[in-house]
């Protein structure tokens, strides 16, 4: 592979000419990864605290993932569609159910379409119980559930919604972590409450135990379903396999995606049997979801992350990260919050320039809202790498 600045310029220009410009990217071209480090076409190394936006939980070039991919490829069954039985998606569904509250799983491709499917299932559930007018969704300010029409309707951000109205009707909002606000917004027309146990894109805001428990009771009182969106905070990110397990509050439906297959596209809707009983053949479908190649790799990822010692290490490293961040003596830091290896540093300045300066120091960071720097590194990151990331952030803040 060519590793010259000319090569990088050619790639960037090619992208500008042929790829729809909905992303703003830095001017380097990534060509390989190892562990928690990425390398660009000029050989520059970057310590990665983004992990593909909380996706690459086992880092880069992981031997176990390589072996799982080789095993899956050797069968020749990259895809056969959901018209036929295959073993990998059945084994993966069994593992997901055995490690969660769920009785059934439906596979998707992304977090956004997992949430769309969850909305459909909630409406179908209400209709099956004789309530055709019970179709509204209660979501929360600061939420991010995706950018498809249904998931976008539940993502209350003006800059995301305004260009695409009218959106899916029937979504109402309450204040996050404010049970009284949720109670005031609830009535017999609401078929489901959707909430992130930790708001990710909204700025890394963990829910309180009292809030989630109150939503559980509120949903039960109104015969509505409680949906936990764990697309970003699930699958080990908080130091629990599922974020809800750290709260002791179980949902009726849980949506997962980002880290599920370690970098390959896959989502899932986990549900109780009462939800599954309301869904019938033909109610929902996907051509590519749960394909045998991706499902085999996902089974390996979930099996690794679900190990108690692995999760204990995530909790310990998350605590270490927060402690090191708290040692930074900077007037720009307002608050540090999060769980496990999902940590936000709220600043009194915009996060964008901090992220950009990170590139110059060989550090990849990502924002969560306008003024929060987010740490969502691979879960296999080492303490010395976390220490180096904090040192770089400290230097960036000192130079502002």
Distance between the termini: 37 Å
Number of strands: 17
Overall CATH architecture of the largest domain: 3-Layer(aba) Sandwich
Using the alpha-carbon principal axes, give the shape.
globular
Pick out the low-confidence regions.
Answer: none
* Helix share, percent: 25-40%
CATH topology of the largest domain: Aspartate Aminotransferase, domain 2
CATH class of the largest domain: Alpha Beta
Q: Strand order, main sheet: write it out.
A: 4-12-11-10-7-5-6
* Domain module tally: 2
- Structural class from helices and strands? alpha/beta
Assembly type of the chains comes to single chain
Output mean pLDDT.
Answer: 97
The DSSP helix count reads 14
What does this structure look like?
The longest helix is centred in the last third of the chain and has 19 residues, at 308-326. A hairpin with a 2-residue loop joins strand 13 (333-339) and strand 14 (342-347). The strands form 4 sheets. The protein has a 7-stranded mixed sheet with strand order 4-12-11-10-7-5-6, sandwiched between helices. A 4-stranded mixed sheet has the order 1-2-3-15. It has helices at 5-18, 51-54, 63-74, 87-98, 111-128, 149-153, 158-161, 179-185, 209-221, 273-276, 292-305, 308-326, 351-360, 383-399, and strands spanning 30-34, 37-40, 45-48, 104-108, 136-140, 171-174, 190-195, 198-199, 205-206, 225-229, 253-256, 267-271, 333-339, 342-347, 363-364, 366-367, 372-375. The chain is of the alpha/beta class and 400 residues long. The protein has 2 domains: 5-62 and 308-399, Aspartate Aminotransferase, domain 1, CATH 3.90.1150; 75-305, 3-Layer(aba) Sandwich (Aspartate Aminotransferase, domain 2).
